[in-house]
Amino acid sequence: MNYFSFLVNNARWLLGGFLLTFFSSFGQTFFISLSGGAIREEYGLSNGEFGLTYMLATLASALTLPFLGKIVDYISVAKTVLMIVPALALASLVMGFSHSIILLIVVIYCLRLFGQGMMTHVSLTAMGKWYSSQRGRAVSIAVVGHQAGEAFLPIIYSAALLIFTWRETWTISAIFLMLVALPAIYFLMQVERVPGDAEVSEASSSKAKHWTRAQVLRDGYFWAMLIAVLAPSFIGTTLFFHQDYLLELRGWDKLEFSVSFTVMAVLTFVFALIAGQLVDRFSATSMLPYFLLPLAAACTAMWAFESVSGSYIFMGLLGVSYGFSSTLFGALWPEIYGTKYLGAVRSIIIAMMVFGTAVGPGLTGYLIDIGVSYPLQILIMGIYCLAASVIMLFVSRKINARRLADS
User: Fold this and answer.
1) How many Cβ atoms are within 10 Å of 87's Cβ, its own excluded?
2) What mean pLDDT comes out for the span 82-97?
C-alpha cells in the first residue's frame, strides 16, 4: 500500500490519534510554561520554588499513571476519551480561577496526568495495537499532533494575551476542549480499527512474545534503554519550563522567540514522517543509537549561541531529535514487547517519562537559584546524550539478537 492510500484508508483513526496528541498540549510543559512568568509573579514564587511545585505535581501524576493507564487494555479508546478530555477541561477551567498554592499543585497534577500523560498514552497505545507492518507510519502521523500544538499554540497564546488575561486564556481553553476536542475525537475513535487480512496473517505467523508488565520490569535491557529514552522528556521539559528565564538571560523578545517554535514544529513533523518510514524499513530497535545525536547538537548550540538567531538553530535541531524520538517511542515498545499488554507496559514507560519531566524543572530550578550557570547545565545535557548514544549501540545489538533468537 502506498503512502497516499494508507492515509485515505486510515484517515479517521490517524486523525483521531493526531487530535489526541494535539489537545494534550494543554497539559504539556511548553503550554503551561507560557503562563509561567505570570504564575510565579502572582503566587510569589522563585524559579526554584515554582520548579519544586511543578515537580511535586508531576511526580504525583507519574505515580498515578501506571494505575490509570492500563484501562486502555480493558475498555475502548472512545470510552477512555469520554473520561480524560472532560477531566483535562476541568483542570484548565480551575487554573483560570485558582488563587491557592495547594489548588495550583492539584491543577498542575491534573493537567499533567490527563493531558501530557493519558491523552498521549491513549493515542500511541491505539496506534501500536491497531497497526503492525505499518506501525511506524501510523505512529509518525499521530505524534505530529504534538508538533502542531507546539507550532501554533505559543503564537496563538501570545496573541491572545493582547486581548485577554492569562487566566482568561485558560478558561477559553477549557471551553474549547469540551466543545471542539471532545466531540471530534469521540466521533473519530468510536469505531475501532480492524486489521486487514494481510496484517492478520502477519500477526498470526509471528512468534513474537507478548510480555506482561511484570516481565518487562524484570528485563535488564528495558532499564538500559531508559538511559536514552528518558533524555528527550527531561531535557525538552527543562528547556521549555525555564524559557522565561532563558529569555531574560539572553535578552530575547518573547514573540520573536515564539516563532522559533514553528521552526521546531516543522522539522519535527518532517523528521517524524521520515522516522516512520525508517522504522518500517529497519525497525525501531535499530534506530536507538542515533536518535539522541541531534539533541546533543541542539544543547551545544543553545550553550554556544547568545543571539536570538541561535535560538532557531537550537530549536531546529531540537525538532529533528523530537521527530525521531516521538515516532521511535511509539513503535519501539510493541516491537520489542508485543501488543497484548501494551497499555499496561506503556503506562509504566509514560510514567517514567513524566517522572523525568518532573525532576528536570525542579533540579535545574534549584541549580539556577544557587548560581549554577543555566547554559552550562544545557551543555552537560548534550554531553549526556552523546554518552547515552554510545551505550545504545550495545543495547540495540543485544535486543535485535534476542529477537532473532526468539523468532
Assistant:
1) 17
2) 96
CA dihedral 116, 122, 126, 129 (to 10 degrees): 100
Asked if 315 and 264 touch (Cβ cutoff 8 Å), the reply is yes
Residue 370 placed within a domain: yes
Q: How far apart are the first and last CA of the chain?
A: 25
Whole-prediction pTM value? Answer: 0.77
Cβ atoms of 19 and 188 closer than 8 Å: yes
Q: Is 87 within 8 Å of 110 (Cβ atoms)? A: yes
- In the numeric block, the cell 514553528 is attached to 262
Provide the pLDDT for residue 195: 64
Q: Which three cell numbers stand for residue 215?
A: 516481565
Helix axes 243-250, 36-43, angle to 10 degrees: 100
Torsion 212-217-222-228 (CA) sign: positive
Judge whether 1 lies within some domain: no
Tell me, what's the pLDDT at 204? 46
Domain holding 356, by residue range, is: 11-191+199-406
Mean pLDDT of 182-204: 73
* C-alpha cell recorded at residue 227: 538511559
Q: Give domain status of residue 6, yes or no.
A: no
CATH number, domain of 355, equals: 1.20.1250.20
The 10 Å Cβ neighbour count of residue 391 is 15
Q: What is the dihedral of CA 375, 366, 347, 222, to 10 degrees?
A: 60
| CA 318 vs CA 166, 208, 237, 306: distances in Å | 27, 34, 12, 17
Percent of the chain with pLDDT over 90: 34
Distance CA 21, CA 27 (A): 10
- d(C-alpha 125, C-alpha 47), whole Å: 35
pLDDT in tens, 319-361: 898 888 888 887 888 888 887 788 888 888 878 887 777 778 7
Across residues 13-32, what is the average pLDDT? 93
Whole-angstrom distance, CA of residue 208 vs CA of residue 99: 52
The structural domain count of the chain equals: 1
- Other beta carbons within 10 angstroms of residue 97's beta carbon come to 11
- 307 φψ region: left (φ > 0), alpha (ψ -120 to 50), beta (else): beta
pLDDT band of residue 187 (cuts 50, 70, 90) is very high
395 in a structural domain: yes
